Amino acid sequence: MKFPPLPGTLGIDFGTSNSAVSFAAPGGESRLIPLEGDATSMPTAVFFNAEDRYTHFGRDAVAQYLTGTEGRLLRSLKSLLGSPLLLESTVVNHQQVSFQQIVEIYLNELRERAAVVIGGAPRRVVMGRPVHFVDDDPVRDAMAQRSLHDAALAVGFDDVTFQLEPIAAALDHERRLTRENVVLVVDLGGGTSDFTVVRLGPQRMQQADRSADVLATTGVHIGGTDFDQRLSLSQVMPKLGFRHHGSDGREVPSRVFIDLSTWHLIQWLYLPRAMAQAQALRVNYADVKLHERLMRVLEQRDGHRIAHEVEDAKIRCSQRDGDTLIDLDFVATDLWAPLGADDMAEQLQPLLARTVQCARECVQLAGLGDGTLDAIYLTGGSSALAPLQRALRAEFGGVPLVEGDLFGGVASGLVYSRA
Fold first, then answer.
1. Strands 18-24 and 9-13: what pairing?
2. What is the pLDDT of residues 47-85, one digit of tens each?
3. Quick count: other Cβ atoms within 10 Å of Cβ 227?
């Protein structure tokens, strides 16, 4: 669809699990764009419907998949940035499509939905990026940003810049401050955890160059999908044979279960070669019922459904700070897996320890002690996780936690980096 050019800037937070878009006219305030009904965030999901040959996005994409419609669901596209897999292709409705093209298809949908709402298509965009797309690999990290830059150009933007996601969140938080603060921004998304120590305040907001206000940034490639993977492996995959020992006393090879618990790797398990390898595992099982469940999941292409159920259970468990069940009735009648608050805290502890340590390193790099922090500002959907918030309170005792717009804060702040 053709849209007239429009002055102003779009901010696009292309997230691992969810994405959001903001718009600001020249010199104007940022506003989030509704992307699905009234919702200003949209799951980063694409479903290629094999029945009507239509491409679905966001919640609609997930719903199409969960209702059993024939097709391909792709999620966690951001996790492919910086990976050789991005240049690989997959078959979609009898056509070869590269994962780079699928990123472009999703990005174009964000741009078009925004254009419908604001009545035109800005040529300028500020894209959010994590502190590290790829840990400890500057070459792959640069390749990841270049891939996202190329995708933005391909869908019609001709002025593309990037801003670190935690800095964007800080610029959004700053609009609500009445005095100067030194803030640790904690941005936990689906794929990364990013931290920034920054000076914010009404007077500083007027400065064109804010580089001196950013005291330190750190990041680690841990996020919500890693939490989901850990919980899936501990609670669900044993129901399919993970950690099961065969009659010879050897453990069933674990690769298939790790891939089945990893959002962006699930689709590869449905290829004929992968299916044959999974079928060949039958000889490793003492209890063949477990192998039958594994094959049923693969044959029915229920991997993303399991991942969805685990994610929902994680959220319920965190919100209630109590026990819940992961429904697996679609795998076998009356099959379920328990998830308790203590189980979740125990399983996530190693990941949370590394995450909090990265936050501590950010404060140390800034040359500050806890007593000089005015607040810890939380953004990103995974920052709502109760075990994480307890870990942050334990590490930074006495520093108040301020919960921001978990899904829209980064997008809202991106456009202010071009002010």
1. antiparallel
2. 999 888 899 999 999 999 888 898 888 888 898 898 888
3. 26
